[in-house]
Amino acid sequence: MVGSCDKAVNVEPSNSVSSDTGFTTKEDAAAGLLGCYDALQSADYDGLAFPTIVDLISGDIRFLGTFTTTYGVIGQNLAAPDNIQIGNTWNAIYVAINRTNYLLQQSDKISDPAFPKATTQAQARALRALHYMNLLALWGGTTQGYGYAGGLGVPLRLTPTTAIGPETAAIPRASEAEVAAAIRADLDFAIANLPTTTTAIPSTTAAANVVTRNAALALRARFELRMRQYADALSFARMVPTVANFGSTTPGYSVTLNDAIWQLYFSTTDKNQYAFYWFGGRNEFDPGLTMAAAHPTGDRRLPINVATGGQTLKYQRSSTGDDPFPVVRYSEVVLTIAEGLAQTGDLANAIVQLNLIRSRNGLPATTATTTSAVLADILLQRRLEFAYEGMYWFDLRRTNTVQTALPTYTQTYRNLFPIPFREVSTTNGVIAQNPLY
């Protein structure tokens, strides 16, 4: 019995890597990279929770279910620091960051000439940039939006934590500007080292399920737009190759997958929770009360966004759980170009780009003729195009229109989410709470 127990205890786990051993082969690094993507798929992250809480706070999703103390209070704009889902999502993002940090550290040690070190690290750094973009988007900036003086950031960890001790010591929040600099550095590296296309997983799917150079360019454009750097947003968006016949294709990525630049892949054995939570088992969510009326007459997105029975066709595979989640779509690139042009004084060409989206969705050319009217139409198209993809709240924040679009949201400090209570309490305030929570 003693011998048997001793033998079992000394077996190296087959589903994990010891931090003492680390990655030693290109196969180790490939497995580590898959683990980085897996972290993004978490049900507390882009497997359900992150885009869901974003659209609950914006009112584009209506809460119906039983998670009243988590999703429910978020939907009422009453999120508090002790909200378990907010804490779980914060933690899931930092788990994802730590995986990328570990891969970057360990892959530097691999000298095999057959190991694609640059592209592996470029994918990891693009993922890390996305994670910090998401952290800043919910918990950072100011009540006015992003990119203003004095903007709040989040703890910035760029090296892995592998053991309890100095690596796990609490660090204060960096400034928004410091986090933004790290995001830009990661995306610049990714853009310089990623191929334009890469093999999808599985290879039969239409869109890439791993980060490509085009996806990194689109993420950089997204970030610059969020930071109100319109000329830079325009420049990076224009580097993304045009999708042939984009304006004439049918709408709805979930129906045709015709404009996804990068999507998260799920399968029957590696499921997401979207359709299950919408209507397949829990029925926790419905479209927001204003969603249907927001669609112009004849909009072909309406039956997708607000389907018969009050659901959505974007997530419908409740039994298999293999609806892909779109991280980056070409529609976003087009609307970023349109907004960048409008904000930099080229209204005529902004309207051309805007009409690509309108035509694709069965709408006539815009009647807007002023900059403010064109921008309003662009923001409406973004809301309808990316419904339930976790985008609208960030558009409201970056344009400083939260209180205009949602007039019952009078407590402007709630424009920033609360830092999870455990982060503040266990660090004795080293990680500072957002003001007034």
UniProtKB/TrEMBL annotation:
Keywords: Cell outer membrane, Membrane, Signal. It holds the Pfam family SusD-like_3. Gene3D superfamilies: 1.25.40.390. Transmembrane segments: none annotated. It comes from the Bacteria. The keyword Signal applies. It is found in: Cell outer membrane. InterPro entries: SusD-like_N, SusD_RagB_dom, TPR-like_helical_dom_sf. Residues 1-20 are annotated as: Disordered. SUPFAM superfamilies: TPR-like (SSF48452). GO terms for cellular component: cell outer membrane. Residues 79-225 form the SusD-like N-terminal domain. Residues 313-405 form the RagB/SusD domain. Belongs to the SusD family. This is RagB/SusD family nutrient uptake outer membrane protein.
